[in-house]
Amino acid sequence: MSEFDELQAVIRRHAEARQAEQRACEAFLNALYHALRTASGPGLPLNNVTLEFTADPAVRLRPAPTGSYHAAWLRLGLCEVLVRVRRADGSFQGEYGPGCAFRLELTSEDDLLALARTLLRDVTAAYGGEQVTSHLN
Fold first, then answer.
1. Could you tell me the residue range of the domain that residue 13 belongs to?
2. pLDDT digit string (tens) for 37-50?
3. Count of CB atoms within 10 A of residue 62's CB?
4. Phi and psi, residue 80, nearest 5°
5. Phi, psi (5° rounding) for residue 34?
6. How many Å is the Cα radius of gyration of the chain?
7. Distance between CA atoms of 62 and 109, rounded to whole angstroms?
8. In the chain, beta strands by DSSP E
């Protein structure tokens, strides 16, 4: 078997795991989007929040290998923030904005709302000229 054939075989063998991971990360990003829409509280939806999945600019292989980040642009009114997320040790690990990171083992509505509110505060601080380096666990 040539090196090329070996590469193709490895990609095929791990296709299901990669696809499952991508679906999980995209579902997480979609849930974060919905949390951002309700971050202002019950009955106060943020209507100017949109979600656009995108290829992660740091991933240099397609299809992305297992363990890679998956990304989406979240438009928050007048600004956009790139959110990157991956599965790591059974939890969701991610990055957003200027040096902010998170790790969520549970993805309950409350956990996602806490992340959404932290993200909004961090983006506000970044535009306000404050140094931001949030690490939500």
1. 3-136
2. 988 776 666 778 99
3. 8
4. -130, 145
5. -65, -35
6. 17
7. 32
8. 49-54, 70-76, 79-88, 91-96, 100-104, 135-136
Residues written for the chain: 137
Place of tokens 């409350």: 110
CA distance 127 to 18: 36
Q: What are phi and psi of 6, to 5 degrees?
A: -65, -40
For the record, the structure tokens of 124 come out as 């506000």
Amino acid (one-letter) located at 129: G
Helix axes 109-127, 15-37, angle to 10 degrees: 70
CA gap 94, 14 in Å, rounded = 23
> How confident is the model over 83-136, as pLDDT tens digits?
999 999 999 999 998 889 999 999 999 999 999 999 999 999 999 887 766 666
Edge-first strand listing for the sheet containing 91-96: 49-54, 70-76, 79-88, 91-96, 100-104, 135-136
- The pTM is what? 0.88
Give the number of domains in the chain: 1
How confident is the model at residue 43, as a pLDDT?
Answer: 63
The residues pairing with 135 across neighbouring beta strands, listed in sequence order, are 101
